[in-house]
Amino acid sequence: MLTLDKVYHAAFKLKEVIRPTDLIYAPKINPEADVYLKTENLQITGSFKVRGAYYKMSTLTEEEKAHGVIACSAGNHAQGVALAAQRSGIKAVICLPDGAPISKVEATRSYGAEICLVDGVYDDAYNKALQLRDEYGYTFIHPFNDEDVIAGQGTIGLELLDQLDGIDAVVVPIGGGGLISGVAFTMKSLKPDIEIYGVQAAGAPSMLTSIKDGKIEHLDHVSTIADGIAVKEPGSNTFELCRKYLDDIVTVTDDEISTAILTLIEQHKLISEGAGAVPVAAVMFNKIPVKGKKVVCLVSGGNIDVTILSRVIKRGLITSGRTCQLNIALLDKPGQLKGVSQIIADLGGNVISVHHERASEGEDINGCYLRIELETRNYEHIAEIRKALTDAGYCIE
Q1: Chain centroid offset of residue 300 CA
Q2: Rounded CA gap, 158 and 135, in Å?
Q3: How far is it, in rounded angstroms, from Cα 163 to Cα 157?
Q4: Which residues touch 37 (CB under 8 Å, ≥6 apart)?
Q5: Does residue 96 contact residue 108 with C-beta atoms inside 8 Å?
Q6: Is 300 annotated as catalytic?
Q7: 189, exposed or middle or buried, with CB in 10 Å at 0-12, 13-18, 19+?
Q8: pTM of the shown model
Q9: I need a surface site. Which of 36, 195, 297, 336 has the fewest CB within 10 A?
């Protein structure tokens, strides 16, 4: 049974392996609130997951430790279990789908785990892990639906209460629900007036749907750049804890998540993965009532795949009005491109690409098209440039 004593015991055991992560003041995230960032993206392994994994292993019997542990994950849980096992002197086997990014596979291997690549997707790797558990007597370390794992994640709540007085609200990502269950249980038990808000990706709202329907729901499909919280079904333990302790659950879109990742990079020099950025997105875009409140956003991890980081940044630039593309119909005569460029330059826009082509079949024989990509300050700047071009007689499509 989950108790405060168990969370305090977890905090004591975790002193051996984790480091307390910093709480950073971030006033620009939402000027109407006092916003702080709990930087679990700077935790060892780059994620909070090592907390629950290590505490779970500390509770195993000597016989269980001798048999070893097994887990299934394509991301942070794999690395957390691998490091926790290495620090505990326990054999760890991690089942991964064969399509998992090479960087994540190698990161897990670097912590001393034995890697088992499984043909297919996560569910296939999960079934393989259960098969190996039964065959070899390993202890399965569940990523979220385990009270010892939840207690380990709850130690973040203890840290927050030590780090900051007068917290009004804490905003936490939700995938399977292990992190928010631990944080909400711990903080509500000690300070019942603190509000706890969960955030899910709009493309993977399994806990939100389950809470609304009053029963655990299984999503047929999930799709989000926040792969760390792309969970189709919450756990039985986490569902009950979330239903009891959360004030609300909201969702954010992939565009909003991308904007939050970009904001954390630019304003605070922090790299966050999609799952870690969803609380920041919720506060930035006023998905929850934060005006006048002292709010903590729990940035849960920073293990974003560098191969998609540039795409995420580009999406964030578009969403925040930092870049735009204009399609302009022109007459095919000298000076047209110069005129457009002059207007943009006078207003402080920066041209980063130009594509010019003559009209295709069926169009005006004297026409041409200019597709131009710009760096801009914000949406107001884009509107200013569009209006100036239109006032000058250019036709923007």
Answers
A1: 7
A2: 39
A3: 10
A4: 23, 24, 26, 29, 264, 268, 270, 280, 296, 297, 299
A5: yes
A6: yes
A7: middle
A8: 0.86
A9: 336
How far is it, in rounded angstroms, from Cα 184 to Cα 7? 12
Of 268, 265, 266, 251, the C-alpha closest to 304 is 265
Rounded distance, CA 195 to CA 216, Å?
A: 23
C-alpha distances out from residue 269 to 236, 263, 266, Å: 37, 9, 6
| Share above pLDDT 90 across residues of the chain, in percent, rounded to a whole number | 73
List pLDDT tens digits, range 125-159. Answer: 888 999 999 999 999 999 999 999 999 999 999 99
pLDDT band at 120 (very low <50, low <70, confident <90, very high): confident
State the Cα–Cα distance between residues 86 and 109, nearest whole angstrom.
Answer: 11
SS3 at position 252? strand
Tokens of 102: 């090479």
119 contacts: CB under 8 Å, gap ≥ 6: 98
What pLDDT does residue 360 have?
57
> Is 103 a catalytic site residue?
no
Candidates 6, 13, 49, 188; catalytic one: 49
Q: How far apart, in Å, do the first and last CA atoms of the chain sit?
A: 62
What phi, psi does 314 have (nearest 5°)? -60, -45
- Active-site residue, from 47, 181, 210, 300: 300
